[in-house]
Amino acid sequence: MVAVFNKELLSWYLITLKLKETLESTIPTSPYSNTRSTDFPQQPTEPLQITINGEEDDGQTLQEQEEEASKSPDSEWVISIKEKLDQARQDDAASSWSKLSIYRIPHYLRENGGDDKAFVPQIVSLGPYHHGKRRLRQMDRHKWRSLHHVLKRTNHDIKLYIDSMKEMEERARSCYEGSIGLSSNEFVEMLVLDGCFVLELFRGATEGFKELGYSRNDPVFAMRGSMHSIQRDMIMLENQIPLFFDPLMPTDEPLTKSDRNKLESSSFDPLSDQSGLHCLDVFRRSLLRSRPEPEAPRIWIKRRSHTHRVADKRRQQLIHCVTELKEAGIKFKKRKTDRFWDIKFKNGILRMPRLLIHDGTKSLFLNLIAFEQSHLDCSNEITSYVIFMDNLINSPADVGYLHYCGIIEHWLGSDGEVADLFNRLCEEVVFDINDSYLSPLSEGVNRYYEHRWNAWRASLKHNYFSNPWAIISLVAAVVLLLLTFAQTYYTIYGYYRPAG
Q1: Whole-structure pTM value
Q2: pLDDT one-digit tens code per residue, 451-487
Q3: Which of 26, 332, 366, 454 has a CA 20 to 30 Å removed from the CA of 345?
Q4: Vertex 101, ends 118 and 341: CA angle to 5°?
Q5: Which residue has the higher pLDDT, 17 or 422?
Q6: What whole-number distance in Å separates Cα of residue 362 and Cα of residue 358?
Q7: In the Cβ-directed half-sphere of 392, how many Cα atoms lie within 13 Å?
Q8: Contact at 8 Å (CB) between 382 and 366?
């Protein structure tokens, strides 16, 4: 048994030596080693091939592989940055910012509006932003009907319109903010369909839909029914198409002088100003016809605001509220003009045009403000007016007094709803009070307000001359005071100068 055990032990010893010889012949001698084996002759060696997960490496050392592995996440990160920069370069080269005119609603206005109905179309989609939405598809068949009427009336071939829009596709796409997820054919079809639909509405409003071949009972092309809702959708900033009239004008004849006169007399006359960017821009221009030229603001405003300010009454006040101005003796009177923004102040009287507020006023003002906030080449008259009204109205009592003066007429549920509407319209809107056409007027009002004599006179009038009985009481009190003074005088006089 001992002999057998020793024999097996000897075999294991020989196998171990053979393994050692094999390993030493394959592993290169380390340059940092102070010892090397001399038991076995040195043989030519090859780099050790290490197999990891079934694959052989390419001859790199472990240290090199570890360094490459540690760098690989950074390499991917750098590649990702370069790809993003390359995309930015392509976007910058392909974009024409000068043509941008149709924008998404800024998030701060969308949040403060509190109601998507003020920004999102409810009846008809125009342009790519809301194109294809399920609840708006019902109007598509009426768009196709309008295109059919145009082709039938003009005897044009549809290919003429398609080719015209194909040539303008790139220009039209550059009018929109952000990328458009429609193919070339889808985008061109949308332009033709929506463009003809809008032009039919324009012509029907000026010439009459019956003259264009529509039935008097037409569910869409008649001045009744859903037309009011369609018009509201047409002045939403996200629901616009660029107004390129010439390629889509469904007539072979130019507009006559009579047609021009009709259009100019209309309250919404998009064809009267073909330089308009889209329906909302043209509508805004019609509101601001003969718009006011802002005067240079005076020093007192410059001291109060040197940079762009947020139009929040907690941070800036262009003018005091109605109640405070009344206490300072300022009167409010209705001004007879249809230009609601044209406000005047003279000799302590603030003259303001009548403003009608209905269920569409919020949407109208919000979209106009959004356009003025977004478009670089747009002035800020509407924003200035709304902020001025926001400053004037702090409470339902302010609304009630303006209603009493005939300045505000509203169809809302209460004066409180009107106050809330104006107080929320311009929350967090970036606005420079130096750039308001109402700044000089506000300066005059505030100067009058700060004069103490005006406040004392107003208080005296309010407390003692507000009604006939108060006047009689005041006169009686004055007479009584004079009689008392006379009695006191003669008593004292008689005491020192007795009758002699």
Answers
A1: 0.69
A2: 766 566 656 665 555 567 666 776 777 777 887 877 7
A3: 366
A4: 60
A5: 422
A6: 8
A7: 26
A8: no
* DSSP per position, 218-237: -SSSSSSTTHHHHHHHHT-T
User: Mind listing the pLDDT tens digit for each residue in 256-283?
Assistant: 445 444 433 444 444 444 468 999 999 9
**Average pLDDT of the chain, as a whole number:** 77
Task: Provide mean pLDDT across the span 309-323.
Answer: 63
Please tell me the distance from the alpha carbon of residue 423 to that of residue 419, in angstroms, as a whole number.
Answer: 6
SS3 296: coil
Least Cα distance to 154 among 94, 124, 109, 199 occurs for: 199
CB 322, CB 333: distance < 8 Å: no
Angle at 237 between CA 234 and CA 243, to 5 degrees: 65
141, amino acid identity: R
- For 150, the token pair is 């145009």
Burial of 35 (0-12, 13-18, 19+ CB in 10 A): exposed
* Burial (0-12, 13-18, 19+ Cβ within 10 Å), 219: exposed
List the structure tokens of 440: 């000089």
**Element (DSSP H or E) covering residue 449:** helix 439-450
pLDDT category at 245 given cuts 50, 70, 90 is very low
- Neighbour-count burial of 151, counting CB atoms closer than 10 A to its CB (0-12 exposed, 13-18 middle, 19+ buried): middle
Which residue stretches of 208-298 are H helix?
Answer: 227-234, 245-248, 257-265, 279-287
Domains of the chain, by residue range, sit at 107-199+226-252+265-287, 309-455, 467-496
Predicted confidence (pLDDT) at residue 40 exceeds the cutoff of 90: no
Q: How far is Cα 209 from Cα 201, in angstroms, rounded to an integer? A: 8
Residue 36 has pLDDT above 90, yes or no: no
Q: Which amino acid is at 82?
A: K
Residues 6+ apart with CB under 8 A from 464: 470, 471, 473, 474
Q: Which residues of 233-259 are buried (b: 16+ CB within 10 A; e: fewer)?
A: bbbbbbbbbbbbeeebbbeeeeeeeeb
Partners of residue 430 on adjacent β-strands:
310
**Which residue shows structure tokens 């009695």?**
487
